[in-house]
Structure formats: structure tokens, C-alpha cells
Sequence to fold (382 residues):
Amino acid sequence: MGDVLACLRGWHPALALAELRTLLPDAIMTGTGIDRWWRMEGEQASQRHDVLEMSSGLQCFLIDGVVTSTDGLLQADWLERMRAYLLAHPVPGSVAVRAWKQGGKIPSWSLSALAGQLGGLLHDMGRSIDLDAPDHVLALIGDGPSTSLACGWMEGDGQAAFSSGQRRAGERPFFKPVSLDPRLARLAVNLASGPIHRGPVVDPMTGTGGFLIEASLSGRPCIGLDIHSEMVQGATMNLAWAHDDDVPSESSVKRGDATRLEDALPEAWIGKVAGFVLDPPYGRNSHGSMQADQLLEAAMTSAHTVACPDAGFVLILPMHPMTPHPMTSLPLDSNINLLNGEWKELLATVERCGWTPLSVHAERVHRSLSRLILHAKYAPQD
Fold:
């Protein structure tokens, strides 16, 4: 196997990297100095295939991928390098070249012109060019902020956006304005649960079922719970809609109490749940007189009692707007201004419930609201 370059999407590279590391826990990842491009080793081709099928933040893999800075480089010299590269890394069958940019253009470098020149090189080498259905695609990616080019034989389709447009929250039969975007819901499921084989996913307060939809579409056994019958009925409708009325047998919505998960889950799932995803509905009275902080603590404590030793937990909470940090995670000691409660108290609660915080990220919703995404792992208790 050749060198593998993982190329992340531009939406939130820091979250995408956290997702990739969780989905490929045994892979060794090395930075290239460019936020969206990471070298990998130690993973298998079958594992990469699984990740490409389910990931929200990954754009593609480049096999034998090379990264080149264009600073001070003549385009003729780059083309010579690529001629040597293509000779050193041949692939069988028909080929095509595909180019795209991320983060803006590279001054004085035209990706479309470069792609045409690469196609010319392949033609001159006697390769069969098939623009419609090639056996292999040579990807050329330009990164504007770093003025660098990545090139390599592509695994994946390289789509520039997570293909969730057909199931946007507003298109579902049961919709609430607070519903998460599918790309964040899918990423949260992956971040919490890890590799596909690790175990089932539970959403203790499923609401309209966004997490559940993404977990089931990615092939994970999953259950969404809600204490309100209206939400159970609505999430059930949404799950059926997402699957064209052919819902997998291991995906379901149930009426249940987030603070007593052991009573709601199948007995075979106790101690086996791999991931928990929670976007608490602070806008409505979820559990009678129970306060939001009490509800969260009870739900996280209950999750710990049914989790497997490798389980993860992703908690999403509203926060006051802050400067976007799409390229890096936030330090755990950051000055985070939650909409409800205090950040330091929340961290203490998470740890008290048996979870170790790993990383925290911020996503902008609109000018007056951001979301906090907290990723934690199971911690054994005495």
C-alpha cells in the first residue's frame, strides 16, 4: 500500500479530524502543515472504505498523495515533478483528472489549466482517458491559504459537501426549528461511537430523530428515546421517511426516560452501547420539574451504567457567540459562555458522571448563537 493522504472538508476541519481519528483509532496520523491534509499509516483499505461510506468530515483519500508548496515554484518545474510522479505510481485501467480548490484560489495558478496539463501527460503516456466512468481518478486539490497543491490517486468521490441535501431537517415530515443539520448529526454519531463494529448508538432525548437518522443510515444499530409521545411519533415518522419506509430492524424509536436507560434498552445492549449523542432540549420542559443541570447529570450517569468500556459521549449545548475556531479544538480551560450554566461546572459534572472530556469545539449557528460540541470517553469507576 502506498502513502495515504486524508483530505478533510472545509466546513470544520478540526471536527473532521477528530471524527477521522475516532473512526480509525489504530491509524497513525501526521500533519502536513496544512489543516485539511493529514498523512496516515497503520490502517487497512477495508477500514478506509468504511470511513468513506459513513464520514461527514472526510472528503477523500489520496493514495500515494504528494503535497507541494507553490511558493517560488515554476509551473513548468511542477509539471516535471508530476511527470516523474505518474511514472513512479502507475495504475491499471482508464483514468481521468479532477481538480478543485478549498479556501480560495492560489494566485497565478489555474487549477483547470493544471488539470488539463496532467491529462495531457497521461495521454502522452498512452493512458486511456475516460471522463465519464474512469477506473481511477487523479485528484488535484489547491489549498488557497497555504498556496499548496495536493495530488494523488483518489479513493472516494471527492464531493465538496456532505451529501445530505435530500434530508435537510426542514424537509422532514416532522420538523422543529432547533433540529440539527445532518452533517453535524452524522459527525456527532461517528465521534461518539467510533468504528462501525464497536456497538450500538443511543440518543437519550431524540426529539425529531436527527441523530437516529444518521446513525441508521450509516448502518449502526440505534435507539432513540424521548419521554414525550409527540416526539416519539414524530421521530418515528422521520426515521421511516429517511429510509423510504424500509427502516432497518436494529433502528427504532421508543418512549423512555433518559435518566433510566437500563429500563428502556434491550437487555442485550446493557454494557454494550458504544456511543451516546445528546442535544438536550432546553427550550421545552423535558422532565417535569427537573432542572436542566439535574437532567443532564442524571442522563450522563445513566448512560455510564449501560456503556461499553470503549464508549464515547458527544454533548451539544447552546452557547453565546464566540470567534469561530474551525481549524482547532478549544482548550478545555477556555472561557466558554454557555447559554445555561457555567462551563467549569459542566466539566465537573461530566467527570463526576464517569466521563473524561477529550475535546471541545465551537460551531457558529448565527450571529447571536453558537453551539458547543463536547466529546468525552468512558472512564471506569471504582
